[in-house]
Here is the input.
Amino acid sequence: MTTSPRFSPAASEFDFTSWMEAQLHHVEQALSQWVGVDTPADLGDAMRYAVLDGGKRLRPLLVLAAAQAVQGLQQAATRAACAVELIHAYSLVHDDMPCMDNDVLRRGKPTVHVQFGEARALLAGDALQVLAFELLTPADAQVPASMQAQLCRLLARAAGAHGMAGGQAIDLASVGQSLTEAQLRRMHSLKTGALLEASVAMGMACGVVSETAQQALMRYAQLLGLAFQVVDDVLDVVADAATLGKTPGKDADNDKPTYVSLMGLEPARAYAQSLYQQSLQALADSGLQNVQALSALAHMVVGRSH
Amino acid sequence: MTTSPRFSPAASEFDFTSWMEAQLHHVEQALSQWVGVDTPADLGDAMRYAVLDGGKRLRPLLVLAAAQAVQGLQQAATRAACAVELIHAYSLVHDDMPCMDNDVLRRGKPTVHVQFGEARALLAGDALQVLAFELLTPADAQVPASMQAQLCRLLARAAGAHGMAGGQAIDLASVGQSLTEAQLRRMHSLKTGALLEASVAMGMACGVVSETAQQALMRYAQLLGLAFQVVDDVLDVVADAATLGKTPGKDADNDKPTYVSLMGLEPARAYAQSLYQQSLQALADSGLQNVQALSALAHMVVGRSH
Here is the structure.
């Protein structure tokens, strides 16, 4: 274990663009190596189609940034980064299916069920979800067993009925309903927030961190998750399909409540900015030195155009 | 860890019926306590409907019988037994959906998508799969972290693209195709066999076992998995819906290859008997004393009428 590489403290001049490019390259390589390889029939094709060459990789970047903040084990962080992306990818595959959102466009490409048929989309999503847990439990000892178990624990809780899947169930039940802000907040804190928070928690679990720093980083993650959803709702109203890479206006069409429909467009934008400022304060409160990437990711989330 | 209860060596007079009743009661209680509790919207109802009050619980019984053979930790074995049943249950929910087998009857009840709608069935299946991994990674130390990681590893591999999900993909691609016996065997070894073998492997992972005994028990598990599928194909031809609890003749109707269509009915029955005898030999080869439950489960698999 002592010989496994750890993240080094960042150089004093932190270049986010270079950092992100390097991390994205690393994540794409790892995903390409691990997803849908030697897989029977065309299941592997559907899995790779769902995961590779697309997506912002926000969750993997959060894992890696958090792992860097605590100087965690690189091998564990790479696996955690890929695992959380697989959960995200599977949720999109299933969410796009005709019985759910019935969406035909995702990341500018036909959705998986359009490309491969519904049965294969269903199976590919199932296989991606469980692959996440396979990645987290390598048989070699490069990742200590206690870390493996903790990563599985964090991911399973975030993805399940008391996390992402539960949020989707509330979302499903809320179509045509008028939600209060508290109800909307709860739905999103499960549907989207739980996995974003788990990304930060899993990154931290790759290293050692004080209770104070841990609480501050979890507060950062909660604020980021909320900001992410507010910006998502804003973009659903103002962006076009080409920029967004998916069909815009779906939520409004489906009569789903959003932060924009609840607060109005400009107040929603201002709310996102306020959440961003609070997330920076949380990072400062952590007392950790290497939070530049986490800080830049929060900026990216609030400033994104798709 | 040393204070955690372990399975005791069985009494010299082993009563399978009493053993099974006690184990089933234990598993039902544990599942009822863990599945779909405090779950948002009606997701929990769909999860509980899919899991509780139905099913033969063959996989949990295999976990518990294997754990007993190696005098494993009871707490770990209970969690492993429930986890493997959740994977089985989720696979049935998704397999029954219109885009897959489009089955309306399961265990004598309407299938989950008939009862709760397709979207909730999809979500409930997803939530059941991930709950399996949540059960395997309790935050308390009653189950050692290395055991937690090993149980997750075994289950993830068995359920994923190189196991159950991969077998389902082959099955999907095989409709209307003429398969050789080798191809049919491979499909079932993934689709059904992988999870049955994982049940035995997970039970063994709850204790300590010699390499020889481990190999013998895995051979037992492979033979049992194969026998299970052969008997399944026989029952699909000879049983009626009331006995079977699901729509019979589906495989023949769907032009799916089966052991019966390949070998004929009587040779398939004889093959199942031969596999049973070989599985008993594997148990004898293990050198383990407490294999009575495993032996009786093999007998049950080959003799079952549904």
About this structure: Chain B touches chain A through 56 residues (CB under 8 Å). The beta strands of chain B are 105-106, 109-110. The longest strand of chain B covers residues 105-106. Chain B has a mean pLDDT of 91.
